[in-house]
Design a protein that fits this description.
The complex is a heterotrimer of chains A (about 300), B (about 290) and C (about 240). Chain B has about 290 residues and is mainly α. Helix content of chain B is about 75%, strand content about 5%. In chain B, a hairpin with a 2-residue loop joins strand 1 and strand 2. Chain C is globular. The N and C termini of chain C lie far apart (about 40 Å). The mean pLDDT of chain C is about 90. The chains are: A mainly alpha (about 300), B mainly alpha (about 290), C alpha/beta (about 240).
């Protein structure tokens, strides 16, 4: 418990640093880019709880992320709810989606869960595109609320994302080191053996899917305020699907550190690259790097570091 | 707004679509249904075949089906290469579940983005002798651009069925899907057999892609529409049952057509997804499964 | 007369057109050393999979200590006291040997002890002879060490009934005796043991009572001496 308390304190310190950073008058682009990178820290960490810890691959990250974003849009349109409510609601709805998909497919082999998530994004996108209340396929403008507590609204969102990233990492770290994390690792290594050793595999899998979905929705909830114009193609962007996979796989899937490394490295690289190359080329490179890592260095950067240190 | 005419048209369109869907799903039926390899990149190979047909059609005026047949050996070779990498990197080490899936997703992604880089996001289509012709059968109009892919699709299904049932390699593939060690005792090399099977599965994508672009224009992201369909059909039809694939494809085609006619085309993808979930929930072994 | 620990009534299981179990009935008494033999494909592992919960039977009932467990998921059965080792070892590859034991220790205990079961795990490893390899990953274990890990892990679940599925296949004569000694000792401690084996001298030496399966049916039952002389058993193994 003492270790968790220490982690929370570190996390609070990071948030405080984030707020301090926000009050500095640096190039505003830093906050835009920083927001995206931190958003990916949340996304990669969330993905890894199910993918790295439990071994169940979710290809439908855009569905969960966009659902969080569109829940926020719905609430903004209907009730003008404040940001914390948007975040909680986005997390809740995406958590339910995770639970639902999990309940329907996790009693079968893992591959069916993955296939279902792959098809899920397309279907959800089609449905949202037909829902006029949240803008349909044309998209919808979203007005940022007035009077952020400090700085400009973007710098405020930046610090919100710092906080969310800290929360996501603390949650992941907590799970990883708990009996739940050990049970997930057992079922990842050999599900049948884990079940026969007393691990309630279905319950743990549903837990992981729900938490993962929740955090993805949480990452998506502030999105409408960040972009101010929400349309399905950007919310359901393929970027999220690939990066959610690539960042943990490149960083290393067995620990909470991996997704953070992957998100920071890959996210920063992509931010730099969008200035110089087209977004398609960017995606192409990510795809190639992903395949290269999966084939050649499946344990990611963490694994390479471990091997170099001779462990 | 209902009329018997509309219903009849929808059903016929669905039946024709079904024949085409069967063609598109044959690869997955073989690779996932029989070999148990979750090749989620299959739709990307189909789109690749579609673009190959487009290029040959726009540059040389070649009929897409001809292109599809011509490129089949090329796609077979591609399939062999892909399987070798997959086998060497994952299957042999027993790590196929997580990493293999990610590998195929990476392939899907790379293929789609490459096509996007090369051809952009404009819709591409083919011009054939029969693109705009249709015949009338008892009050129901049948467009050739649906009829021809359907016929070819059914022919492909029959060809694969005969291949699996009557040829040595086909039967070896059926055997390897059931018991690898028995196959080894018979003197055949399971890895070689699986390589051939995977190659055939990818080869099928060449012709199916050509059929795809005959029916409707394509963009690189069209492959995503077919992910749900392919797997829904394979699961519903019974993993590895070629006859089941045809039946399931027709069921899906008709269901989509009806949904499209009476509720609007944007719901057709939800149909395949719904069928997939339903099939998984109710009877994962499918209609004709083992 | 010892109480009945496990009862199987009319168990049926088919895979597609193939009938693996065709109405098998048997009882295992508490504290017994029970042998289950039969030619390849006779349904032994299928029976064990149904009892442990890895498979759902198509028909019949399974009772453990009088409770009907036929529809319980496997992890619940483990918590009730049934543990098994796997024919082909299935270790948790990302964990060390002692961490492998930590999983059943953690998931079958009612209360969590302060040290997370470390002392108990160390004791099990000592009994089974793996204490030197406690902090090693399964990938670097030898064949017999893997088998021992399978057994140790099942023991860590603190079972009342331990099912050993061909725990000695491919081992040398000395190694077989090694495992037998451990099993005898476990049984003396009160654990009921079901042994599935092809190594006849091990089964004959170990079992108090043996049931023979062939083609999914029970064809013989009795003490080892009777089984050895049973013509039906001989026919099942050697053919006509």
């Amino acid at each position: 418990m003492a270790r968790t308390v220490r982690a929370v304190l570190v996390g609070l310190a990071v948030v405080a640093a984030g707020i301090a950073l926000a009050t500095l008058r640096v190039n505003p682009y830093l906050y835009f880019a920083g927001y995206v990178i931190l958003q990916y820290v949340v996304i990669a960490t969330a993905w890894n709880i199910l993918g790295g810890y439990a071994g169940y691959v979710n290809f439908g990250t855009p569905a969960f992320f966009a659902l969080g974003a569109y829940t926020a849009v719905f609430l903004i349109q209907s009730t003008q709810a404040p940001l914390p409510v948007l975040i909680l609601a986005g997390g809740l709805v995406s958590a339910l989606l995770g639970l639902g998909i999990g309940y329907l497919t996790l009693r079968l082999r893992g591959v069916f869960f993955s296939i279902a998530t792959l098809a899920l994004s397309i279907v959800l996108q089609t449905m949202i595109m037909n829902w006029q209340y949240v803008g349909g396929s044309r998209g919808m403008s979203v007005l940022r609320p007035s009077g952020p507590p400090f700085g400009s609204y973007v710098t405020f969102l930046f610090t919100v994302m710092v906080a969310l990233a800290v929360v996501a990492v603390i949650v992941a770290r907590f799970i990883e080191r708990s009996w739940i994390g050990r049970g997930l690792a057992a079922l990842r290594d050999n599900e049948e053996a884990a079940e026969c050793m007393g691990v309630p595999t279905l319950r743990l899998k549903l837990f992981a899917t729900t938490i993962s979905g929740c955090l993805l929705g949480v990452a998506g909830a502030p999105f409408p305020y960040y972009v101010t114009f929400v349309e399905p193609n950007s919310a359901f962007n393929l970027d999220y699907a690939v990066n959610a996979l690539a960042m943990p796989m490149i960083g290393g899937t067995t620990s909470w550190v991996g997704p953070v490394i992957g998100a920071v490295l890959l996210g920063a690289a992509q931010q730099l690259a969008t200035v110089t190359i087209s977004s398609e080329m960017n995606l192409f490179i990510v795809g190639v790097v992903l395949v290269a890592f999966v084939v050649l260095a499946p344990e990611g950067i963490l694994g390479l570091v471990r091997r170099l240190r001779g462990r | 707004m209902f009329s018997w005419d509309l219903l009849a048209n929808a059903v016929v369109a669905g039946l024709l679509l079904g024949g085409f869907y069967a063609a598109v799903s044959l690869g997955i039926s073989l690779i996932f249904g029989l070999l148990d390899i979750a090749n989620i990149a299959q739709p990307a190979f189909v789109i690749l075949g579609a673009y190959a047909a487009y290029v040959m059609n726009s540059s040389f005026g070649l009929d897409p089906i001809l292109t599809g047949l011509l490129f089949t050996p090329l796609f077979y070779a591609l399939g062999v290469v892909v399987y070798r990498v997959y086998y060497g990197s994952f299957e042999r080490r027993g790590e196929e579940s997580l990493r293999g899936l990610v590998f195929f997703f990476g392939l899907l992604f790379i293929i789609e983005v490459s096509l996007s880089l090369k051809f952009g996001v404009d819709y591409r289509l083919v011009q054939t002798a029969y693109t705009s012709r249709s015949i009338d059968l008892g009050g129901v109009g049948i467009a050739f651009r649906y009829l021809v892919p359907c016929v070819v699709g059914v022919a492909m299904t029959l060809a694969l069925y005969l291949f699996l049932g009557r040829t040595f390699y086909g039967r070896a593939i059926m055997a390897v899907s059931q018991d690898q060690s028995a196959l080894r005792l018979m003197g055949a090399n399971p890895v070689q057999i699986k390589t051939i099977a995977f190659g055939v599965g990818i080869a099928a994508a060449s012709l199916s892609g050509a059929l795809l672009i005959s029916i409707a224009p394509v963009i690189p992201s069209t492959d995503r529409d077919y992910i749900g369909r392919m797997f829904a059909i394979t699961v519903l039809g019974g993993m590895g049952s070629i006859g089941g694939t045809l039946v399931a494809a027709v069921i899906l085609g008709v269901a989509e057509s009806l949904m499209s006619t009476f509720s609007g085309p944007s719901w057709s993808l939800a149909v395949s997804f719904g069928i997939l979930l339903l099939a998984l929930a109710v009877r994962p072994a499918g209609l004709f499964g083992r | 007369m010892a109480a009945t620990l496990l009862e199987v009534h009319g168990l049926r299981k088919s895979f597609g057109g193939f009938t693996a179990l065709n109405g098998v009935t048997l009882q295992v008494r508490a504290g017994e050393r029970f042998g289950l033999i039969g030619p390849n494909g006779s349904g032994k592992t299928t029976l064990i999979n149904c009892v442990s919960g890895s498979l759902h039977a198509d028909g019949g009932r399974i009772l453990f200590e009088g409770t009907d467990i036929t529809t319980l998921p496997a992890h619940r059965r483990t918590q009730l006291g049934i543990a098994r080792s796997f024919q082909i070892p299935k270790p948790f590859t990302s964990m060390t040997v002692i961490e492998n034991l930590g999983i059943p220790l953690e998931y079958t205990r009612r209360a969590r002890s302060r040290d997370g079961g470390a002392a108990e795990a160390a004791e099990i490893l000592r009994v089974i002879g793996l204490e030197a390899k406690a902090h090693v990953r399964p990938a670097s274990l030898t064949q017999i060490e893997m088998r021992k890990l399978e057994l140790a892990r099942a023991m860590a679940a603190r079972p009342k009934l331990l099912i050993c599925d061909e725990a000695m296949a491919g081992l040398s004569s000395g190694e077989v005796d090694d495992i037998l000694t451990i099993l005898f000792r476990l049984n003396e401690g009160g654990i009921t043991i079901i042994m599935i084996e092809h190594i006849m001298r091990a089964v004959m030496r170990f079992s108090e009572r043996i049931v023979v399966l062939d083609a999914g049916e029970r064809i013989a039952e009795g003490p080892p001496d009777d089984i050895v002389r049973n013509p039906a058993v001989e026919k099942a193994y050697l053919g006509e």
